[in-house]
Design goal:
single chain, 180 residues, mainly beta, Immunoglobulin-like, three-stranded antiparallel sheet, 33% strand
Length: 180
Amino acid sequence: MFAQENGPQTFVIDPLKPYVYLKFDHIGTRKPVRDGEGNSGLWLRIVNNCRIPIVLRSFSVPEGISGVGLMDQVIENEPTLQVYSTPEEGQAIQRHEKVRKSKHKPEGYVSETSGVVRIQPGADTLFSVPLNHVDDDWHMRIEFALDLDKSSISVGPFTYLSFYKWNIPKELRPPDPAIK
């Protein structure tokens, strides 16, 4: 518990939310950071809902790009058991699997030289990644640490925030190319 003039406080600011979380902001145009990226981006906010600052690895973005550059990883989703009731449904799933295996999973943002983004308690930071960093077959993950001392971002302990395609509001999700 953290003491304050008005009495003790809890670690979490809003008890109805996780202590740090990713919040969907919008899908919109973005200036590509690397060659080969599209102009459509997923815009997210990382929200610090705890009473300790957090730190994230960052990279410098070219001039004219909104938000900050946060390093992310693109992770393949774990396979799930699928049960289907008709042969046609099974064939549709097999077609989807062929399309899935032919897709190229993008690389997340990594950099040999990194900086640090610090987010104060109760604050958030806007960032963007290419829209293809989330898909039916993979998701993106951001790593952060509580800012306890100068080495927090180097040695952790780390917490990972994942963002999946299904975290995008349904009416805004890009269609699955395997479903026709």
